[in-house]
Amino acid sequence: MRSVDTMDFGKVVKDQRRIMGLSLSDLSSKLKVTKGYLSRLESGKSMPSVEMVKKLARLLKLDSTQLGILAGYLPSDVESILYANPVTAPAILRERFGEYAKQAEDLPKRTIEDISALSKVKSLYELANADCFKWLEERRSNTVHAIVTDPPYGLKEYTAKEKAKLRTGNGGVWRIPPSLDGYERSPLPRFTVLDQEEKGELRRFFFEWAQKAMNVLVPGGHIFIATNPLLSHLVYDAIEKAGFEKRGEIIRLVQTLRGGDRPKNAHREFSNVTVMPRSCWEPWGLFRKPCDGRVQDNLRKWKTGGLRRISREQPFCDVIKSSPTRATEREIAPHPSLKPQSFMRQIVRAALPLGEGVILDPFMGAGSTIAAACSLGYRSIGVESDPEFYRIAVRAIPKLAGIPSNGANASVAYSDDVSQEELFAVG
User: Fold this and answer.
1) Which end of the chain is least crowded, N or C, by CB within 10 Å?
2) How confident is the chain (427 residues) per 10-residue block, as mean pLDDT?
3) CA–CA distance, 133 with 213 (Å, rounded to integer)
4) Would the pTM of this model clear 0.85, i.e. be above it?
């Protein structure tokens, strides 16, 4: 069975709200959410949680099961029938449930694996196609327990102009690599050189963002933020000025094709010169909102303040060995800056010290953070302003979350990646 487009869900909610004579303000007040969030639900730009579906159904006097199906959630009894009887499911549903049979007959192309993954995963997260600055302004204070994100730190790369060049293959600040053995390689952002005015704008961007993030994070909540060696000092300074405590850096050891080039248009003349070192690591800044009292007090009250250990014997460490993102993941989620699940699952796991709370990715991209949270059973929220990337994330998250882990270690997705436990083995 297909997942029904959330636009259908939004239309039902909007029509029923109007039938009952409720304004957006009326319903948002009853639900204790902002008008902006409710408007995005009705327009299909946000995906509701299971709890929100139930609340809406109760207030609008709608059938919660049918409303849940419109939002993409399958009842457990329907899912079990589909899973156990992929061929005869339509007939069984017709006999037992009636109204579900038409949907099962009309939608034969979706596999049972897709159904199962979607149903189990979607209850853990919410998505919003929105500007994260506005979204953060509308979010209630102290409702997010950690932020894990890979923002457009160069800023130039993700302007509308440069994204258009990326999507048409014209390059711009994006380097479009030539095909290799018939395989089209993914575009990579160039090392953009920012002038002083652009650096100032970058500082202002992250200072304003960090102020808004400070409001939604609970005391002791951490930010894990990806950057690069050229710009990290600007990003870190802005976040500290907003009131966060710098708690270190996570070093992702990864060999990429960035850097190591000879002088442009003079590579033969200066064949022994490298303009920049080949990039073999990626820094992730680690920051914490000040705790409410002692760390132990903060952990008891807010479930935050520290990082989740790998085991009783092994603490979380600040170096993670990581492969580049695999082709299989890029096929699922074709985003130019997609991070691999093998890496994301390790830092997302560490972000909630007691395994409780909500992870936020305000620059979601194709959803790798949200997928990693789902694979760990964490609740999460993803916000993405670009409609195309948002649509990719909606489709990709359940599939990325379903990538198998490496044996008993649920943080690692591939056998040739090295977990921290293996990299820093005790004894």
Assistant:
1) C
2) 52 89 90 86 82 89 81 63 55 52 46 52 86 94 97 62 55 48 48 77 94 98 94 94 97 81 87 87 96 97 97 94 90 91 96 97 96 95 93 91 67 55 55
3) 9
4) no
Q: Are residues 329 and 412 in the same domain?
A: yes
Residue 168 lies in a domain: no
State the CATH number of the domain containing residue 92.
1.10.260.40
Which residue segment(s) compose the domain that 69 sits in? 6-110
Does 79 map to a domain?
A: yes
DSSP letters spanning 191-248: -PPP-HHHHHHHHHHHHHHHHHHHHHEEEEEEEEEE--TTTHHHHHHHHHHTTPEEEE
The Cα–Cα gap between 97 and 79 comes to: 12
- Is residue 129 helix, strand or coil? strand
CA dist 19 and 65 (Å) reads 20
Exposed, middle or buried, 269 (CB in 10 Å: 0-12/13-18/19+)? Answer: exposed
Determine the Cα–Cα distance for residues 213 and 16; give it in Å rounded to an integer: 34
Rounded-to-integer distance, Cα 298 and Cα 247, Å = 16
Locus of tokens 């949270």: 373
Separation between Cα atoms, residue 297 and residue 218, nearest integer Å:
13
Region at 98 (left for phi over 0; alpha for psi -120 to 50; beta for the rest): left
Q: Which residue has the tokens 């202002």?
A: 204
**Structural domain count, the chain:** 2
